[in-house]
């Protein structure tokens, strides 16, 4: 192997495979050591070095310098080639792994090359990645040669290959699309503070502006909604709520629950819960379809949010005080303090920190343990009762549906009968009229 050939190989691999030259030099040195070890035996101590400037080889065997002609001519060329190829593949794998590992969470654009078994194979430059069904937005499908944007979710080595997994369901995709479509975010004038997302259905994005002259919500929406429209289209029609961020939860929680109107927010610090009071006509809007609005708002704020009306809260407070007071060792004053801190059920009481309850009621550790154990028992009983109530409700719904279907069927039969009678009358009238005409 001539020096100029070594330099040419190193340069070609560096350019074609995007592998650092030093890594290629080390791979060739390692390959030559392996080949010579097979030539002279495992007990031989062999070192090989390549001059990084002129490509000249030098080496020693058991401390004795090896003749360069011997290096070039006596080693097994095929063995050296195989080892070099293996080392280069490993170096290429490591290079690809390191390149894409640095991009985890970033958005990439690729072309779908195959779509098999609900998994899309996406070409990213010269590298293939996969977009599995579990990381696709519900309802989406892909076709060969279709361009797709996604975030890099996971990168791992699998044998001699690198497995790159893409995702379109993570909040990072929403954030990257906002950064791409909204210059103020890319420039740092507007900052995304939090994102909560249910892919394919709805996302909430909390933003704040560092410049009082820039309206963070208006800038994200764009003129006639053109900016947000592009993002929604990329996400397959997913609804996006832009929320004005505030460090004050009394402001942030109502913002996060929009478009519902909030009357009052009660923060329960010990439980990390916010009780939100709304009017009866705003209750379903605040909760959202299948609880989606309040669920996303909770994720956005980082607090458990419970929606109720003033009447419901008063009823829960009354039940909680009465129930807690009936537990041995808890008097009414302590029960009222617990309720004041947001503990409204036996389940809440069962997870209280013992030290907090000891301090709140001036109770001993043994007394607190008994109270918590009793709360756990009652919480379990309440859960069983609730499950039974849900079962009865479902059964009643089925009965009501069956009754309604039967009534509808009976009404249809009656309607059909009345229609048939009308037809008979018309026919009879027609026959009489014909007879009358004949008589005349």
Report on this model:
This protein is α+β, with helices and mostly antiparallel strands. The chain has 4 domains: 3-100, NusA, N-terminal domain (N Utilization Substance Protein A, Chain:P, domain 4, 2-Layer Sandwich); 103-167, OB fold (Dihydrolipoamide Acetyltransferase, E2P); 188-220 and 239-307, 2-Layer Sandwich (GMP Synthetase, Chain A, domain 3), CATH 3.30.300.20; 312-399, 5' to 3' exonuclease, C-terminal subdomain (DNA polymerase, domain 1). It is 53% helix and 20% strand. It is built from 16 helices and 14 strands. The protein has helices at 3-17, 21-40, 68-73, 77-101, 171-181, 183-186, 216-221, 226-234, 249-256, 283-287, 292-301, 310-325, 332-340, 346-350, 354-361, 365-439; strands at 46-50, 57-61, 64-65, 107-116, 119-124, 127-131, 147-158, 161-167, 190-198, 202-209, 239-244, 264-268, 273-277, 304-308. A 5-stranded antiparallel β-sheet has the order 6-5-4-7-8. Strand 9 (190-198) and strand 10 (202-209) form a beta hairpin. Helix 15 (354-361) crosses helix 16. The longest helix has 75 residues, at 365-439. The termini are far apart. Residues 423-440 have low confidence and may be disordered.
Radius of gyration (Å): 37 Å
Helix content: 40-55%
Strand order of the largest sheet: 6-5-4-7-8
CATH architecture of the largest domain: 2-Layer Sandwich
Mean pLDDT: 85
Number of domains: 4
Sum up the overall morphology in one term: elongated
CATH homologous superfamily grouping of the largest domain: K homology (KH) domain
Amino- and carboxy-terminal Cα gap: 125 Å
Total beta strands: 14
């Amino acid at each position: 192997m001539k020096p100029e050939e070594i330099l040419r190989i190193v340069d070609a691999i560096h350019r074609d495979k995007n592998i650092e030259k030093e890594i290629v030099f080390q791979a060739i040195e390692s390959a030559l050591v392996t080949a010579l070890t097979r030539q002279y035996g495992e007990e031989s101590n062999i070192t090989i070095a390549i001059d990084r400037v002129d490509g000249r080889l030098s080496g020693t065997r058991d401390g004795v310098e090896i003749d360069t002609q011997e290096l070039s001519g006596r080693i097994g060329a095929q063995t050296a080639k195989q080892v070099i190829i293996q080392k280069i593949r490993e170096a290429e794998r490591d290079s690809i792994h390191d390149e894409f590992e640095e991009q985890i969470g970033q958005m990439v654009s690729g072309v779908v090359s195959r779509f098999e078994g609900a998994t899309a194979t996406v070409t990213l430059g010269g590298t293939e990645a996969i977009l599995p069904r579990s990381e696709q937005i519900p309802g989406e499908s892909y076709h060969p040669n279709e361009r797709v944007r996604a975030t890099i979710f996971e990168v791992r080595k699998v044998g001699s290959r690198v497995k790159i997994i893409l995702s379109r369901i993570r909040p990072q995709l929403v954030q990257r699309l906002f950064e791409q479509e909204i210059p103020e975010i890319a420039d740092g004038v507007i900052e995304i503070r939090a994102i909560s997302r249910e892919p394919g259905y709805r996302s909430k994005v909390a933003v704040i502006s560092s410049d009082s002259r820039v309206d963070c919500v208006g800038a994200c929406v764009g003129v006639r909604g053109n900016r947000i429209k592009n993002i929604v289209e990329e996400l397959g029609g997913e609804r996006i709520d832009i929320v004005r961020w505030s460090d004050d939860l009394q402001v942030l929680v109502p913002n996060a629950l929009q478009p519902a109107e909030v009357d009052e927010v009660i923060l329960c610090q010990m439980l990390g819960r916010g009780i939100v009071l709304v009017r009866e006509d705003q209750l379903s809007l605040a909760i959202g379809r299948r609880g989606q609005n309040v669920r996303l708002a909770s994720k956005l704020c980082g607090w458990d949010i419970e929606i109720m009306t003033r009447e419901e809260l008063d009823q829960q407070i009354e039940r909680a005080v009465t129930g807690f007071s009936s537990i041995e060792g808890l008097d009414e004053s302590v029960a009222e303090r617990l309720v004041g801190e947001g503990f409204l059920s036996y389940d809440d009481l069962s997870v209280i920190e013992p030290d907090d309850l000891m301090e709140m009621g001036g109770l001993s550790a043994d007394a607190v343990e008994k109270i918590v154990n009793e709360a756990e028992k009652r919480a379990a009983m309440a859960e069983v009762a609730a499950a039974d109530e849900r079962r009865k409700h479902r059964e009643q719904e089925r009965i009501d549906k069956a009754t309604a279907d039967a009534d509808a069927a009976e009404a249809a039969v009656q309607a059909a009968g009345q229609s048939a009678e009308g037809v008979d009358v018309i026919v009879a009238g027609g026959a009489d009229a014909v007879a009358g005409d004949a008589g005349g």
